[in-house]
Amino acid sequence: MLDGVRERLVRAGAEHGAGAVAAPDDVAVADALRASGRVLGATALRELTRTAHAEIFGAGPLQRYLDEPGVTDVLVNGPEEVWVDRGAGLERVVVPLGGPEAVRSLAVRLAAAGGQRLDDASPVVDARLPDGTRLHAVVAPVCGEGAVISLRVLRTRTFGLADLVASGTVPRAWEPVLRGLVARRASVLVSGGTGTGKTTLLAALLALVPPDERIVCVEEARELDPDHPHVVPLTARRPNVEGAGSVDLADLVRAALRMRPDRIVLGECRGAEVREVLMALNTGHEGGLATIHANDVEVIPARLEALAALAGMDRAAVAAQAVGGLDVVLHLRRVRAGGTTRRVLAQIGLVRGDEQRGLRVDVAGSWDGAPGRSGWSPGVAAVPVGGPFGGPLAVPVAVPVAVPVAVPVARPVAGHVTGPVEGPAWDELVGRWSV
């Protein structure tokens, strides 16, 4: 029946123009189902229309999870192994996908929907589906039988910084600092592992950019959709089957410089394009932002050196460019507590130069993701009873602290290891960037 519905939709598209079948609505699919001659009730027609649309134009049996609110990733390891991330970690679900050939056919069809080729000669594909979902798939001989499919769902809602604070991703004590970084045009690098929320935080920061500024976003696959009135998205293009027509990230960064940008944003530093980004940030384009994969703020220098080496830059050149072009690193992590996984802003680091080590990033603040307790209070230091260095018990006592009133920084009380913790560079960070 699906083959008949597909043929009718193709014929209908041919009658109305070449692009008419690119994304048919449910009405067109329902009409094609009625034309099959089957007698269907209203409820059955709705269900069959939804199923047919998913099978022909969507992700088949996986579509229900892509449409489910809160789902971030759908992963297929084989015909009988499907995992879903609803924001609290991966959970296994039962989905009837058929055999290995059915899984491979699904992967090939999804790749074709994204304008890419997936077969034995080209067994790995990255593509963006018409609804914005990001697809990565591999087939044999890269994997075993069938295919391995990874789907990253495009967010339908863009979160603001206030949302991230309310949800516990960003500690409230750090909100004024983050707002100050944007307002004072700091150049920021957002780091973290896969799925830690780098793009989400980046979009939230871009929403704080004044509306009269022009933002040019460079990405390999478009994910950024900040709540801002003047955003120019540029997306890299892979070569076609003849190996021609590619436009890489480095090309796009150079193009962005000629577009009169107020802010240049690179969705992810992952190769030689880091050279162009560092050069842009050193030529009057302050206030830029980018993301990078890293385990910790203190390993950022090594990551930048490794990526810049692909562009022929030596360690001294990377250090000189990074110190002049980057100001702050924001690092995100996934933390597990109470049986659920949360994404949190775990560290803030200041980028500095060192005559001996070259480039370094000093920790200004760190957070384990735990909310503050009664032993913590904003702008109050912990002083032991009986004097600064004596007494068996530490209690919170209000004393003057060198922190601007606008930044309610939590300071630890003895016996409590929770809440944001100040690092050696905190006072410099607040003094320079907080609003």
The CATH superfamily label of the largest domain reads P-loop containing nucleotide triphosphate hydrolases
- Sheet with the most strands: spatial strand order: 9-8-10-11-7-12-13-14-17
Q: So what's the CATH class of the largest domain?
A: Alpha Beta
Pattern of helices and strands: HHHHEEEHEEEHHEHEEHEHEHHEEEEEEH
**Most strands sheet:** 9 strands, mixed
Shape: globular
Family: Belongs to the GSP E family.
Protein name: TadA family conjugal transfer-associated ATPase
Pfam families: T2SSE
GO molecular function, one term: ATP hydrolysis activity
Quick description:
The protein has helices at 2-16, 26-34, 42-57, 63-66, 100-113, 161-166, 175-183, 198-206, 249-256, 273-281, 300-309, 315-325, 426-433, and strands spanning 73-78, 81-85, 90-93, 124-128, 134-139, 147-152, 188-192, 215-219, 231-235, 263-269, 289-293, 328-337, 340-354, 358-366, 382-384, 394-396, 421-422. The chain is of the alpha/beta class and 435 residues long. The protein folds into four domains: 1-57; 58-154, Beta-Lactamase, CATH 3.30.450.90; 161-371 and 422-433, Rossmann fold, CATH 3.40.50; 372-418, no CATH class.
What features would you describe in this structure?
InterPro entries: P-loop_NTPase, T2SS/T4SS_dom, T4SS_GSP_E_ATPase, TadA-like_ATPase. The chain is built from 13 helices and 17 strands. It is of the alpha/beta class. It has four domains: 1-57; 58-154, Beta-Lactamase (2-Layer Sandwich); 161-371 and 422-433, Rossmann fold (3-Layer(aba) Sandwich), CATH 3.40.50.300; 372-418, no CATH class. Helix 10 links the parallel strand 10 and strand 11. Helix 1 (2-16) crosses helix 2 (26-34) and helix 11 (300-309) packs across helix 12. It is globular, with a radius of gyration of 26 Å.
